[in-house]
Amino acid sequence: MLKKLRGIWPSAISGIIGFAIATLIFIPTLYPNSQNIYRIIRERINVLNQIIGYVNHFYFDKVDMEKIMDGAFHGLMEELDPHSTYIPAKEQENISELFKGNFQGIGIEFDILDGFITVIAPVPDSPSDIVGLMPGDKIIAINGKDAYKITKTEVFEQLRGRKGTSVTVTISRFGEPKPFDVSIVRDNIPIYSVGAATMLDEETGYISLRRFSATTEKEVVESINALTAEGMKRLLFDLRGNSGGYLEQAAAISDQFINTIDTLVFTKGKIKESNQVFKSNPNKGNSDFSLIILINRGSASASEIVSGAIQDLDRGLVVGETSFGKGLVQRQLPLDSGGAIRVTIARYYTPTGRLIQRPYEDGNDLAYYRELYDLDRENKIDSLKELRPKYKTKSGRTVYGGGGITPDKYIPFKSTINSETIKVLRSPKRPFFNFASQYVSRNQFDFTNFNQFKNNWETPDELFKDFLLHLEKDSLKVNKDSLLTDFPYIENRIKSEIAGSVWGKNESANIRLLLDNQVIEALKHFNEADAFIKSIN
User: Fold this and answer.
1) Residue pLDDT, tens place only, 191-201
2) What residue ranges define each of the domains in the chain, with the CATH number in brackets?
3) Which residues are catalytic?
């Protein structure tokens, strides 16, 4: 054991010395007037050397020095802010895949909070989304094995896998009396940015944007052009659950809607390179259609840059729930190990000068994220509104800084489906998809035109009974009376899956949106969004 540790020891010391040298090189530039920094660094490096030496010599059992040092690096970054982080080499490969490539797994964005895998958001249309995983869910076991204090590397190793294989996760959810198991069948994880682009009616287009990746601007422009060709005169741009991505892409998307010369977003940091101003190109923007931005508490970072620009410049109406509140910009810096650090280099500000970062306590990331799931979050935000800094939009409307983008119209999400329906929705056997697919295969010649299907197709009388029989064949025991109370939802879900099977994801989303209360309410406010267009033109 000692022999093995002595083999690791030179590498660990080399890393520490390298870190110290790098620090001493850069610190004079960053802190020219803070001589105490040198003394603090030297003292702390000496203490770190002592700790590693003692562990190496005295610790009674085998030591994974690489794991220990990774823990130290994580701890260092966690003391900065909730969004600065150390990324080991294996994890860095996974993050690169999310924005540039493809992978197979269950599809969740997560973090390790309070020792548990915590779902930040399920990737839309992924296996995790299909079975109903929710932000805030804690995965406390994987295939029956305790997942407490699991590392991110271990999460990827255990949750990723070949398409078609399954994994059972045990979920602890706020408000649920006890944990429950969910079996998830791994699949290809969608990487594209635009989740859906469809016409809700003859003049209303809808685009759902999942993330801001390298291809986002191209995808959004293509979607806008396609919808315009179909007669779009107004657009509902859905940023719900979009946790962000590339700053440059956020500015580029904002630019698609602004046809005046204005600042879209600007950043301020410690070093000159961190200070950027993104201005609109009037030859690029489009003001031919009115615009509503739909956000929720999961809309963060780049999503807030877009909604903030639209709100500040009075280009459109922002509706939904108060957004996440992330006003910090990170830069990813490569490490010789193949890993990286993502360090906050600047704050970003909306065109009026708003900083929308929520308050946070250094090192207490759990409280920072848990706050999002408070049932009375919006009431708390509203009660403190008068204490937040106020700004004026281009036309003189009052907007607020200091804690996310406050929507112009608050529209809470509402769901009334019962536990039995949720159980069917969560089933890894995907009964809705399978039933609809089988139905389409038996009646494929009945579906020739989507608009006719959407407006005229009625559920056959025997459909619900056939669906119950399908559940029975799949050995899914359900309370039929409870399912019957959710018949409109079940009917809509089956119709949506039929549309997806016949025409694709855009048409599938189009049907599901018919029961989306936030979308339904948002459409009622286009008269207000139209007023912004009239003032521009």
Assistant:
1) 789 999 999 99
2) 2-63 (no CATH), 102-188 (2.30.42.10), 194-413 (3.90.226.10), 419-519 (no CATH)
3) 301, 312, 326
